[in-house]
Amino acid sequence: MIRFLLRFLGLWVLAAGFIFLIYDGTKSIAANQPLLTKVQDVWGNVHQASLLSLKPKLMDISGFLWDPLMTTFLDQPVALVLGLLGAIMMLLGRKKRALIGYSR
Predict the structure, then answer these.
(1) pLDDT, tens digit, for every residue of 8-33?
(2) Secondary structure letter of residue 94 according to DSSP
(3) In this structure, how many other beta carbons lie within 10 angstroms of the beta carbon of residue 98?
(4) What's the half-sphere exposure (Cβ side, CA atoms, 13 Å) at 16?
(5) Average pLDDT over residues 87-91
(6) Longest alpha-carbon distance in the chain
(7) Looking at residue 104, what is its pLDDT?
(8) Phi, psi (rounded to 5 degrees) for 77
(9) How wide is the angle at C-alpha 10 spanned by C-alphas 6 and 16, nearest 5°?
């Protein structure tokens, strides 16, 4: 059941990443320059309050969590992040390979 859920959600996340790839491609063609949608922009459009409340929480734990780690993550293209997340979920949810030479 968990494998099915991981594959199902992974497929939807991959589809969302593909949609953002098409969206960025059409914006880039229209502008005649490469344009990428960042994670920070999408997160801010979806739920601005959670993005703003994340910085003080991470700074209280450690300044290292916010400045090099989270800022690097927030500057990545959404299509890349969703594509990697979907691929990882699909790999975690795949069926186990049958062992050759063993009978079950």
Answers:
(1) 999 999 999 999 999 999 999 999 99
(2) S
(3) 8
(4) 17
(5) 95
(6) 60
(7) 58
(8) -65, 140
(9) 150
Round to whole Å and give the CA distance between 19 and 16.
5
- Specify the DSSP class assigned to residue 36: -
| 40-64 confidence digits (pLDDT tens) | 999 999 999 999 999 899 899 988 8
CA 2 – CA 96 distance, rounded (Å): 13
CA distance linking residue 79 with residue 14, whole number of Å: 9
DSSP state of 47: -
Tokens describing residue 6: 């991981």
Q: Which amino acid is at 10?
A: G
Segments making up each domain of the chain, as ranges: 1-35+78-94, 38-76
Amino acid at 29: I
Cα–Cα distance for residue pair 61/82, rounded to 1 Å: 26
17/57 Cα distance (integer angstroms): 28
Report how far residue 96's alpha carbon sits from residue 87's, in angstroms, rounded to the nearest whole number.
16
